[in-house]
Write a structure and sequence with these properties.
Elements (H helix, E strand, L loop, with lengths): L4 E10 L6 H19 L3 E9 L3 H10 L3 H18 L6 E4 L3 H16 L3 E11 L4 E2 L19 E10 L5 H10 L4 E2 L1 H12 L5 E2 L1 E2 L7 E2 L2 E6 L1 H5 L2 H4 L7 H7 L4 E5 L3 H15 L6 E5 L2 E3 L2 E2 L10 H8 L1 H11 L6 E2 L2 H31 L12 H20 L3 H22 L1 H4 L6 H22 L4 H10 L37 H7 L1 H7 L23 H5 L3 E11 L7 E6 L4 E6 L14 E5 L5 E3 L2 E3 L2 E2 L1 E2 L8 E2 L14
Parallel strand pairs: 1-2, 1-12, 2-3, 7-13, 12-13, 14-16
Antiparallel strand pairs: 4-5, 4-6, 6-8, 9-11, 10-11, 14-15, 17-18, 17-20, 18-19, 20-23, 21-22, 24-25
Helix pairs in contact: 2-3, 4-10, 5-6, 11-12, 13-15, 13-17, 14-15, 14-17, 15-17, 17-18
């Protein structure tokens, strides 16, 4: 009997810039889902790809003094290299510059045009080069910012071919109603329905002013606009009009995985194109949230983007995969911090799972000459077995709903229970009592069998680590051959010879991590002042007006610097200890290039005393030193007092 198919896609990533953390996250999630589905017995196709056409790519290539194709080739290689490093097992990779993609785009166009949904006209409007989309406002006297990215737009007028998107408002609304799982989470579907109810305008799908793209078959001076081009990659990647048998086997896609910022293009434009061409729409488009940095969306303009190559080099792909899936409630935004990664590494992996594995391997080696014994009877056996069955069922149920964080929480519930079970039974004490041999056997077996189940459940998330656990338990073969829908407690491990190894999850040294991250942390370290764009006189413009209630929330205190030293390896940072009268605080300040630490001893300063603590270079900073500056580039000047002021006095 043939396996059921499951086709999942990542977005097609723009090649105007190197791979970024957001794309790496989406692809890690897609790979995890694909691995899970394979272990559930599905014939899986995971597609990733690169979107290599458009004005943005053409401009980026020109700025670098190279041809667009050369830019695309280089970034394509970066993506495939990164996917390999992150353990991504994609089945298909589509580049929109491939001939098979041209074939698919032209076929989609011909079908839409034959059905009367494409016409030629002229379009004028405010155009965002970054998003390759027009802003809704079309008044040439009122410049518009892009509604998606906020960047400035350019006024453009050009001849264009249009898709009759306006004809699909009612059809799309009916489609959403009859397919409630088309957009997930449900809150995103509500947003899309609201957008469509607001009215749809016909969509420009070609450019006559652009040369880097696929020419229209019946008017080659026009090339296809990015969304009609790029979205079709989901079909060309499985051979639409190149291999009808393969295409019909896997289409429609089960899941398009996208960031919430590109949901509208996937949930409105894409199904309209497909309906116009007489093709099935994908079953589900899942829009995940953004990774944030201190509550702000990561972006190059804010300087808070993360380099996925560096994250992999510093933390390793297994920890990175575990962290992003455990930390984020999928579908919501989530804050990223290095401290949180280190905490997960040391608490979850080293202390919990790593400790359970190393203790189990060591005890079986020491007390039973490396052979896993058959189970006897010990207090807590039934509890562990019952919990294991419950965790298997719950983990699978959560994976089905893409609730990765909850699935992993469930696995860690079993890990924690088994660690407690070891403490309760004290196998090291049982080993000294020959009469307790059966109880010791049972403890050792239950630990090993629990690890087998844990390894299988973690395989989609941490494939390398799970395989290592599998092999250390004396099991051969690929752990991905395990069928999760058949996973259950078993006695089959009895008699297997364990194969010990080095610690799978050694503790992470925070100082060493921050040393490796030095260039990134230095760039993101808070200075004593955070100047914004300057006004005409060089001074920072006024911040937005606040109420007195807002002001009184900030607790400013007088204090005296009693210790000051440079932070090793950081050019900007000083470690200060400030006496606030009622307590002494350690505060890190980015003023090392302006103030010598020894000259700060005894100086009165103003401290933001109720600021949430944060860690830099493994050191906790409990507050902020207040300083003044005219603007960017000017050195900060520490605020102080002309009259004697007691430590702890509050500024009002």
């Amino acid at each position: 009997m043939p396996k059921p198919t499951f086709y999942i896609t990542t977005p097609l990533y723009y090649v105007n810039a190197p791979p970024h953390f957001g794309g790496a996250f989406t692809t890690i999630v897609a790979d995890t889902i694909a691995r899970y589905k394979r272990m559930m017995g599905f014939d899986v196709k995971l597609l990733s790809g690169t979107d290599e056409h458009g004005q943005k790519i053409e401009r980026s290539a020109k700025a670098q003094g190279i041809e667009p194709r050369a830019l695309a080739d280089g970034v394509f290689q970066q993506y495939t290299k990164l996917w390999g490093q992150l353990g991504i097992q994609y089945d298909e990779f589509i580049r929109t510059t491939e001939p098979r993609h041209d074939t698919a785009v032209i076929e989609l166009y011909n079908r839409c045009k034959a059905n009367g949904f494409i016409y030629k006209s002229e379009y004028s409007g405010w155009y965002c080069v970054s998003c390759e989309a027009y802003a809704p406002e079309t008044d040439p006297t009122k410049p518009a910012d892009c509604p998606d990215c906020g960047r400035k737009t350019e006024w453009m007028s050009e001849e264009s071919y249009f898709f009759k998107l306006s004809a699909f408002q009612d059809r799309l609304l009916a489609f959403y109603e009859s397919n409630p799982d088309f957009v997930k989470p449900k809150t995103r579907l509500n947003e899309i329905v609201s957008f469509v109810k607001g009215g749809l305008k016909d969509l420009s799908i070609s450019r006559a002013t652009l040369k880097w793209g696929i020419p229209l078959p019946d008017d080659p001076k026009h090339v296809f606009y990015v969304w009609f081009d790029a979205l079709t990659g989901y079909m060309s990647g499985i051979q639409f009009k190149s291999d009808d048998v393969k295409f019909s086997k896997y289409w429609p896609a089960n899941v398009h995985l996208v960031g919430k910022d590109i949901l509208r293009f996937h949930a409105v434009y894409w199904p309209a194109f497909l309906l116009a061409a007489g093709l099935d729409a994908p079953r589900t488009i899942y829009a995940h949230g953004h990774w944030m940095s201190q509550g702000e969306k990561m972006s190059k303009s804010r300087g808070n983007v993360l380099d996925p190559y560096q994250l992999d080099a510093v933390f390793g792909s297994e920890l990175l995969r575990y962290f992003v899936l455990r930390e984020m409630v999928f579908g919501q935004d989530c804050n990223f911090s290095y401290d949180a990664v280190i905490q997960r590494a040391n608490s979850d992996l080293a202390n919990d799972l790593g400790n359970l594995l190393s203790r189990t391997m060591a005890m079986i080696a020491k007390y039973r000459n490396n052979a896993i014994p058959s189970p006897g009877e010990a207090p807590g056996d039934a509890d562990v077995r019952a919990l294991a069955g419950k965790v298997i069922a719950n983990c699978i149920a959560q994976f089905e709903e893409f609730n990765f964080s909850r699935a992993l929480e469930s696995v860690w519930e079993l890990i924690s229970r088994v660690n407690k079970y070891i403490v309760e039974n004290e196998p090291w004490a049982l080993a000294e009592k020959p009469g307790e041999a059966g109880r010791l056997d049972s403890v050792l077996f239950h630990c090993a069998e629990s690890l087998r189940i844990v390894a299988a459940l973690l395989a989609p998330v941490m494939p390398k680590s799970s395989q290592t656990i599998w092999n250390q338990l004396g099991l051969d073969g690929n752990i991905t051959d395990v069928k999760l829908n058949e996973l259950q407690w078993s006695n089959s491990l009895a008699g297997k010879a364990v194969r010990g190894g080095t610690a799978l999850f050694p503790r992470v040294d925070a100082k060493e991590i921050y040393k490796k991250l030095e260039p990134v942390v230095d760039a993101a370290a808070p200075a004593a002042v955070s100047p914004s764009a300057t006004g005409s006189n060089g001074a920072s413009p006024l911040a937005p007006v606040i109420t007195i209630d807002d002001f009184v929330k900030v607790d400013l205190r007088a204090g005296t610097v009693v210790e000051a030293e440079r932070v090793k390896g950081a050019d900007k940072l000083l470690r200060l200890v400030v006496d606030l009268g009622f307590e002494k605080r350690q505060i890190l300040a980015g003023i090392a290039k302006v103030y010598e630490p020894e000259k700060l001893i005894g100086r009165k300063v103003v401290v933001v005393a109720n600021l949430q603590p944060r860690k830099l270079r493994g050191l906790e900073s409990n507050g902020m030193i207040v300083a003044a500056s005219l603007g960017d580039g000017d050195p900060p000047i520490l605020a102080g007092f002309n009259e004697e002021t007691p430590n702890g006095a509050r500024l009002r």
